[in-house]
Specification:
The complex is a heterodimer. In chain A, α12 links the parallel β7 and β8. Chain A is built from 13 helices and 8 strands. Classes of the chains: A alpha/beta, B alpha/beta. The interface between A and B is large, with 72 and 68 residues. The complex binds iron/sulfur cluster.
C-alpha cells in the first residue's frame, strides 16, 4: 500500500518519455484533472525516461544511470503520479531491484513507495467525481499488462468510465490478453508481435465501438498504429484525455 | 540477421490449422482451470502454501536428497545419480542389459524427452514405445511433444484419425475419439504384457517416506510401473518434497492448474518393488535422478525459483506467445514460459538465449503459476546475464554471450541522452518539428503498423506554456 491515501496539497507528475513525444495532450489532461480536484502539480522539467527500456533489455547499468537522474527530481515526501501503468510499474516494482545494494537504495525505495499510476490515484486518493457532458459513445478499454498485473489497477479505469453516464463500455474477446507491444519485443520478435496485435485489433473491431481507451501510451501506439495501417481505424485515446474531454475540459 | 527461431516462428505462424488447434485447446484449458478455482482467496492461499512447500524443499535440497536416497534404498528401490543426460541414458541401458531387455514401454516422462532416451535406445536397436495416448500419437508421426502435459495438442481429431489410418491401414477409418482411443489401448495392452521393462516419470518424491508419486489419467502410468518386471523411474533432482503431508496440497493445485481436474483418474504412490507374497508389481524398481544443469540453477539464489516448477503447464496454457507460435517453435523440450526460463539456463544463453526475448513480460504466466514463480523477473534477469560485462560474476551458462557492441553502444548513447535533460529535450522538440523528415519505414514496426506519430510539440513545451509549476 502506498504511504498516503490522503489527498495531498501538492504532487509530482512524471510525464513519461512516450507521452512527452507522442501523447502530450494526455499528459496535459492528466495534470488538468488533478488540478481541477484542487491539487497543485509540480512537473520537474529535467525528467526524461524511467529507464524501463534498458532495464527490460538487460542493460542495468544504463537503466540505473537514467533512473538515478529521475530519482533526484522527487525530493519532497509527496506522491509521484504517472499516466502509465508501465512506467509506474518500473518505478514502483523495479527500482527497488535495480538499486539493491546501491548507495542510494533508500532513496530509490522512498521514490518507489510514493508512486501512483494515474487512474489509481484519481480513484483511490482523489476519489474524483466525474460528470459526463459528452454525447453517447461506445468504448473499448485496453488495460496494459503492467497496469493489470504489475500495478493491479485494472479496475480503476473501469470505475472511472463507469461514472460517465453516456459512456457504454463494450467488452471485447480476450480482453486481458497482451496487445503484443512489450517494448523492444515488438522489434526483436516482430512476427509474434504482429500476430498478437492483429488479433487484438480484430477483437476490438468486433466489439463495434466508437473509441478505444487505455491508460498506457505504448499499447495505444501499438494498437492504433496497427489499425491505421489496416485502414478504417477506430479512434483511440489515452484515458486522461478522454476523461478531460468528457467532463468539460476544452477538447484539443 | 533473422534468427533460426524467428524463421521457425514465421513458418508456424503460417500454419492456420495448427494455430486454430492451439487456440481451441488453450481456451478450453484456461476455462477449465478457472472453473476449478471459484474462490479466489482460497486459490491465492493455496498458491502461497504450494510455493512455500517447494521453496522449503529446495532450501534443504542436498539433505532431502540424502534422506530420500536412504529411505528409497531401505524400501528396496535402487537409486542412480546422473549428472548428464548421457549418463542417465547409460544407466537406463545398463539396467536393460542386465535383464537382456530389447524393448521398453514408457509412461509419460518429460525428463526422458530431456534425455533423448527414445533416440538413444532406437539407435541401439531397442524399441522404446510410448504408452501415453498423446505421446503414442506423436511417436507415430515422429514428432516431439508440443506441450508438457498434452504432447499432441497441436493435432486435431481429424489429423489424428488420418494418422491412425495411415499407420494402421487394416483398421477402418474413424474419427470417433473413443474408437481411436480403444485402438491405441488394444495395441498397447499386448505390449504391456510383453514388455520386460517399464519407464515412467515422477511428479513428486517424498524424502520422509521414500515414496514416488505419479499422477495420470489413462492408467498407462500404472501399467508401465506395475506390469513389466522392472520399473525405471526417471526424474530431475528438484522434484523432492520433505514430507508426505506436502503432497496433497501440491496434487490438488497441480491437477486443477494443469487440466482443470479436481484430481487425476490415477494417483500412484510407489514405495517399493513387489514384496514377498504380493501378487503384482515389478520385481525391481529403479530411480534415475538427473541433474543436467539443475545444480547450477540451484547455486543462484534468484534463479533457484525456476526449480520450484511442478510442471503443470498452466503458464504455457495462458501464454499469448505460445498459443500463437505453438510448442514446436521453441526448439526445446520444454516450451512456453517455463521453457523460456529453464532451457536457456540448462543449455546456455548462447544456445537458447533468444527465448528470453520471446516474451512481452505480460505476466499472464506468473499470474497463474501455482508455485508463484516470477517468470517475467527471471526472464529479465536472464536478459541481464546475457548481455552483462561482468559475466564471471554469475553462474548462468553462456552469460555475456549475447552482448553485441552495437546494442551496447545504443544503450550507452540512450543513457547519455536521457541523463542530459537539456540536450534530450532539445532533441525531442526538434524531432516534433522535423517529424516530416523522420523515416516512415521502420522495418519490423511498420510492416503491420504505421510509423509512430510524433505530436506537434512535446509535453514539456505545453506545460511550460500553461505555466505548470516547474519548481
Ligand atoms: S512454471 Fe509454474 S505454471 Fe509453469 S509449468 Fe511450472 S509450475 Fe506450472
Amino acid at each position: 500500500m502506498n504511504m498516503t491515501q490522503q489527498k495531498p496539497d501538492t504532487l509530482y507528475f512524471f510525464g513519461t518519455c512516450l507521452i512527452d513525444l507522442m501523447y502530450p495532450q494526455a499528459g496535459v489532461s492528466a495534470i488538468q484533472l488533478i488540478q481541477r480536484a484542487g491539487v497543485n502539480v509540480i512537473f520537474p522539467p529535467a525528467q526524461t525516461c524511467c529507464g524501463q527500456p534498458a532495464w527490460n533489455s538487460g542493460y542495468r547499468d544504463e537503466a540505473r544511470a537514467v533512473a538515478r537522474a529521475q530519482i533526484a527530481l522527487f525530493p519532497k515526501p509527496i506522491p509521484i503520479v504517472i499516466p502509465s501503468g508501465s512506467c509506474a510499474g518500473m518505478m514502483k516494482a523495479h527500482y527497488p531491484e535495480l538499486f539493491k545494494g546501491e548507495a542510494d537504495e533508500a532513496q530509490a525505495l522512498d521514490v518507489a513507495g510514493r508512486v501512483f499510476e494515474l487512474t489509481e490515484f484519481l480513484v483511490d486518493v482523489l476519489q474524483i467525481e466525474l460528470q459526463d457532458l459528452g454525447a453517447p459513445i461506445k468504448v473499448a478499454v485496453h488495460t496494459s499488462c503492467s497496469a493489470r498485473r504489475e500495478m493491479g489497477v485494472a479496475d480503476k479505469i473501469e470505475s472511472l468510465l463507469g461514472q460517465l453516464s453516456n459512456v457504454e463500455r463494450v467488452e471485447h474477446a480476450r480482453k486481458p490478453e497482451c496487445c503484443g507491444f512489450g517494448g523492444t519485443f515488438a522489434v526483436k520478435e516482430p512476427e509474434i508481435s504482429a500476430a498478437m496485435v492483429l488479433d487484438k485489433t480484430t477483437h476490438i473491431r468486433n466489439a463495434g465501438v466508437d473509441r478505444l481507451v487505455s491508460q498506457d501510451g505504448g499499447c495505444l501506439m501499438n494498437i492504433s498504429g496497427a489499425m491505421e495501417k489496416q485502414g478504417n481505424a477506430i479512434p483511440s485515446q489515452h484515458i486522461a484525455e478522454f476523461l478531460w474531454e468528457r467532463t468539460g475540459g476544452n477538447a484539443s | 540477421m533473422t534468427s533460426e527461431f524467428r524463421l521457425t516462428v514465421r513458418e508456424n505462424l503460417a500454419k492456420a490449422e495448427v494455430r486454430a488447434n492451439f487456440y481451441r485447446a488453450m481456451d478450453g484449458l484456461m476455462t477449465r482451470r478457472l472453473d476449478q478455482f471459484p474462490d479466489k482467496v482460497e486459490l491465492e492461499r493455496l498458491r502461497t502454501q504450494s510455493m512455500a512447500i517447494r521453496a522449503n524443499a529446495l532450501s534443504k535440497l542436498p539433505e532431502l536428497l540424502e534422506q530420500l536416497e536412504a529411505n528409497l534404498t531401505r524400501n528396496g528401490i535402487q537409486v542412480h545419480w546422473a549428472e548428464t543426460t548421457d549418463q542417465a541414458n547409460q544407466i537406463v541401458l545398463g539396467i536393460m542389459q542386465q535383464h537382456n531387455a530389447q524393448s521398453i514401454i514408457k509412461g509419460k516422462s518429460m525428463v526422458s524427452e530431456e534425455m533423448g532416451l527414445n533416440h538413444f535406445l532406437e539407435a541401439l536397436g531397442i524399441e522404446a514405445l510410448e504408452s501415453d495416448l498423446g505421446e503414442f500419437i506423436i511417436q507415430l508421426d515422429h514428432e516431439a511433444p508440443s506441450h508438457i502435459i498434452m504432447p499432441a495438442i497441436h493435432k486435431n481429431r481429424v489429423q489424428i484419425a488420418k494418422l491412425f489410418h495411415e499407420k494402421f491401414p487394416d483398421i477402418p477409418y474413424t474419427e470417433d475419439v473413443d474408437e481411436l482411443t480403444q485402438l491405441a489401448r488394444r495395441i498397447l495392452r499386448d505390449k504391456f504384457y510383453a514388455a520386460p521393462v517399464g519407464l515412467s516419470g515422477v511428479n513428486f518424491m517424498v524424502a520422509e517416506t521414500g515414496t514416488l508419486c505419479l499422477v495420470e489419467n489413462e492408467g498407462n502410468g500404472r501399467m508401465s510401473t506395475t506390469a513389466p518386471p522392472v520399473h525405471i523411474a526417471v526424474t530431475g533432482i528438484e522434484k523432492v518434497v520433505e514430507s508426505l503431508s506436502d503432497v496433497p496440497p501440491l496434487l490438488s493445485i497441480l491437477t486443477r492448474s494443469a487440466t482443470g481436474q479436481p484430481i487425476t483418474t490415477y494417483v500412484n504412490m510407489i514405495s517399493s518393488p513387489r514384496k514377498p507374497g504380493e501378487k503384482d508389481g515389478p520385481e525391481e524398481v529403479h530411480l534415475v535422478l538427473l541433474d543436467n544443469g539443475r545444480s547450477n540453477i540451484y547455486s543462484d539464489p534468484e534463479l533457484l525459483a525456476t526449480l520450484r516448477c511442478i510442471r503443470c503447464g498452466a503458464c504455457i496454457n495462458h501464454c499469448p506467445v505460445y498459443v500463437r507460435i505453438g510448442g514446436h517453435s521453441y526448439g526445446t523440450v520444454y516450451p512456453g514460459p517455463i521453457g523460456s526460463i529453464l532451457e536457456p539456463q540448462k543449455a546456455g544463453l548462447d544456445v537458447h538465449g533468444e527465448l528470453t526475448q520471446a516474451s512481452t513480460l505480460c505476466g499472464a504466466c506468473s499470474e497463474v503459476c501455482p508455485v508463484r514463480i516470477p517468470i517475467p523477473s527471471i526472464l529479465n534477469r536472464l536478459r541481464y546475464d546475457g548481455v552483462r560485462k561482468d559475466a564471471a560474476n554469475t553462474n548462468t551458462v553462456g552469460s555475456g554471450k549475447r552482448r553485441t557492441l552495437s546494442e551496447a553502444a545504443t544503450w550507452k548513447t540512450w543513457a547519455w541522452a536521457a541523463t542530459h535533460p537539456a540536450l534530450y529535450h532539445t532533441g525531442s522538440k526538434l524531432a516534433t518539428r522535423f517529424k516530416g523528415m523522420l523515416p516512415t519505414n521502420l522495418g519490423a514496426w511498420t510492416s503491420v503498423r504505421t510509423a509512430p506519430k510524433l505530436a506537434e510539440s512535446t509535453l514539456h513545451e505545453r506545460l511550460k506554456a500553461l505555466g505548470v509549476d516547474h519548481e
